[in-house]
Amino acid sequence: MSSADRRHQEIAAAAHSDSASDPTKATLPLAGARPRIDPAAVRRFQLTVVEGPQVGATRQSNSDKCSIGSHPLNDFVIDDPTVSRFHCEVRIGPDGARVRDLDSLNGTVVDGVGAVEAFLRGGSLLRLGRPVIRFDFSSESNRLPLSDRTSFRSLVGTSVAMRSCFALMERAAATDSTVLLEGETGTGKTRAALSIHEESARKDAPFVVVDCAAIPENLLESELFGHEKGAFTGAQARRIGAFEEASGGTIFLDEIGELPAELQPKLLRVLENREIRRVGMNAYQPVNVRVIAATNRDLRAAVNTGSFRSDLYYRLAVVKIHIPALRQRPEDIPALVEQVLASMGDDAKKAEPLKAPDFFARLQHSAWPGNIRELRNYIERCLVFEDALPLTETTAPPAADGHVDAMQPYATARRRALDQFERSYLQSLLALHQGKVTHAAAAAEMDRVYFYRLLRRHGIKP
């Protein structure tokens, strides 16, 4: 497996089966008299162009996923103007093979039906604009790299998903390569970034965090690169930016998907040339920093829509690590609960009902849309009330038309309903206050910085 393939692997749970005829399952050969299932084995598959340009071109998967598009960073590159830069992704998971469209221009059609996400069977045909690609299962399997560790600094997990994640983090920590952490809100991306820093040769140098979504757009450039005295109104003294502050260490750019368009080429220059220029300064100066970025969005879809530069994505995704959602690794919940209890002092009497097997079983059957952050808050509330509180699902607001798409997974449908609610609420609130953000944020009883963050997330300009 090449280093380019290894660096773009993501995390997926292994498939388990008793039947050799199920094409999505994989097992190891017999060990003694008993067959043993390899938890890191995933079924290999092949993609073949059967219509349009590049007919006959094939791609064998070498991990649990394969991205398709016209951009060179894809696993299977289809050079055709009707194919988006990052068109779709095929992935093998515990429940089978799926294809997911990445907000492509012409969409992804599976066996004649347009789909945002769909299961695949052997022989399924994917139309991506003009090209048509056939999906076939292979008789062989790929083995995902797993770490022997069940913890990585402040991260814990015994699941295949987390041990595979730890394996990628170990490799990332051993280099100075730029890392892109992907994952839902609350999965622990900040902890992952700090853990990589603490495992690296830069561990004794600064670790500086910049939340690109929490800082107003007009202040973010100065926050990142600093400014000279008199560079703008209010700049009464020279200010050192985050990149200089992190000299010799690591800078963590959280919510990188919210970086304004005008700052993206400036960050690209830093990544390419390792030099910065303060606001109001003419000359560039070198910086020695390791960059780790994180996002809860799929930046490939943002590249397709033009809101994120493809060359910047290429520079950020040198090592791409996906942090799995908590619902994808329920077997890690007991260890996570133990970690939370230990961090809070672990009063034996108060914590006793929170370590019972039936309590763990209840936690493992919850969806946890807020992931580890939500679990931690719930455990803290249980300690306050000295009892295992009832688990209540967070209900999503209904869509504007009163309907939801029951064909979508719960998390996807919930996220879309929330996005629709937020967008409608923000637009109505701004209209009510004549576009004045300060007044609108005050009326919503919301922090103004967070209000700006929501506006940028939904592409709303006041």
Give an overview in words.
- This protein is α+β, with helices and mostly antiparallel strands and 462 residues long.
- Helices cover 31% and strands 21% of the residues.
- The strands form seven sheets. A six-stranded antiparallel β-sheet has the order 4-3-13-12-9-10, with no helix packed on it. Strands 6-5-7-8-11 form a five-stranded mixed β-sheet, with no helix packed on it. The chain has a five-stranded parallel β-sheet with strand order 17-20-23-16-24.
- It is globular, with a radius of gyration of 24 Å.
- Residues 1-36 and 393-401 have low confidence and may be disordered.
Which features characterize this protein?
24 strands; six-stranded antiparallel sheet; disordered N terminus; 462 residues; five-stranded mixed sheet; 21% strand; alpha+beta
Give the topology, please.
Elements: H1 3-7, E1 30-31, E2 34-35, E3 41-51, E4 58-60, E5 65-69, E6 76-77, E7 88-93, E8 96-101, E9 108-110, E10 113-115, E11 117-120, E12 125-127, E13 132-143, E14 151-152, E15 155-156, H2 160-173, E16 179-182, H3 189-199, E17 207-211, H4 217-225, E18 226-227, E19 239-240, H5 242-245, E20 250-254, H6 264-273, E21 275-276, E22 285-286, E23 290-295, H7 299-305, H8 310-316, E24 319-322, H9 333-343, H10 348-351, H11 357-364, H12 371-385, H13 410-432, H14 437-443, H15 448-457
Parallel strand pairs: 5-6, 16-23, 16-24, 17-20, 20-23
Antiparallel strand pairs: 1-2, 3-4, 3-13, 5-7, 7-8, 8-11, 9-10, 9-12, 12-13, 14-15, 18-19, 21-22
Helix pairs in contact: 2-3, 6-8, 9-12
